[in-house]
Automatic annotation (TrEMBL):
UniProt xrefs under Pfam families: EamA
Name of this protein: Multidrug DMT transporter permease
Membrane topology qualifier: Multi-pass membrane protein
Record flagged with keyword Transmembrane helix: yes
High-level lineage: Bacteria, Pseudomonadati, Pseudomonadota, Gammaproteobacteria, Oceanospirillales
Length: 302
């Protein structure tokens, strides 16, 4: 199989997995409390990731001196933000949740500019303004016309995005060279234990109330979405350029919106759907390589 075909298949796989994840989270939280559901998700994923690491001869242990990074990743990349995502879907539709999370590249760019003083091209700054303006308008519009719209759900998703972006811009730069399986294995296990214990005391889950559909959704999140999503995106980044891989952020919300419409009969308003095109344009501009256009803006340290 040639590289072009591999990239195409990996791209389709990543978009499909990321797009279906949001519906799966909505189905999971229908009968399973969010903290417990996320704990079960990681309890399914962790052994599979550890097994895969063993099969590939990859260590599951973080290097010496990376203990703080390990804790931060376990809590603020896995445990808390993933719980916030599934918690938020109790209040907003899976389609709207996916649109909010698709702004991850925008959040990363904002934090990189203000925390790391990264140079930003004019077209990236323009994309940032377009994406944020579109997102704010969509959220405001959906909260006023959609009964599923809720400030609580939106806030949960926004905080989750910011946590992921903060870890990405700060911790990941200090974890360069760590294999993707190492990065996910033990932090995922720690998150599972932490959430299962927390969920037991805070949510007192009733196992008899868990539906087969919700349990199946959680297993899907832990296995297919967990292992498949991680490895497919990792391989895609190895074979394709970062810009090509980032196009997934433009496609998976479309899949999530289509699934939400087909299975739940929910649709964003026509205005919001139109604004989604501008939002995706903004995200695309933030991910275009800096050399695409000549002019750059530099945010220098004072």
């Amino acid at each position: 199989m040639n590289t072009k075909t591999q990239v195409s298949l990996l791209f389709i796989t990543v978009c499909f997995i990321w797009g279906t994840t949001w519906l799966a989270m909505e189905l999971a939280v229908a009968t399973i409390p969010p903290i417990t559901a996320t704990g079960i998700r990681f309890a399914v994923a962790a052994p599979l990731i550890i097994l895969l690491a063993r099969m590939k001869g990859v260590t599951i242990w973080f290097p010496k001196g990376k203990g703080l990074e390990f804790i931060l990743i376990s809590l603020f990349y896995f445990a808390i933000p993933f719980t916030l995502m599934i918690f938020g879907e109790q209040f907003i539709s899976s389609g709207l949740a996916s649109i909010i999370f698709a702004n991850m590249p925008v959040a990363v760019l904002i934090l990189s500019v203000f925390l790391q003083k990264q140079k930003v091209a004019i077209h990236q700054l323009l994309g940032l303004v377009i994406a944020l303006g579109s997102l704010i308008t969509i959220i405001g519009n959906e909260m006023s016309v959609n009964s599923h719209g809720s400030l609580i759900g939106v806030a949960a998703l926004v905080v989750a995005v910011l946590m992921h972006a903060l870890i990405y811009t700060n911790v990941q730069t200090r974890c360069q060279g760590i294999h993707v399986l190492t990065y996910n294995a033990l932090p995922c296990l720690v998150a599972a234990v932490f959430l299962m214990i927390t969920g037991y005391f805070m949510e007192t889950p009733d196992l008899s109330s868990f539906s087969v559909l919700s349990l199946s959704a959680v297993i899907y999140l832990g296995s297919i979405a967990g292992i498949g999503g991680i490895m497919a995106y990792f391989q895609l980044n190895k074979l394709a350029s970062p810009f090509q891989a980032s196009i997934c952020f433009l496609i998976f919300p479309v899949i999530a919106l289509c699934l939400d419409s087909l299975l739940n009969g929910r649709m964003l308003s026509h205005e919001s759907l139109f604004l989604t095109l501008f939002l995706m344009l903004g995200v695309l501009l933030t991910k275009l390589p800096e050399g695409t256009f000549r002019n750059k803006l530099s945010f220098k340290r004072s």
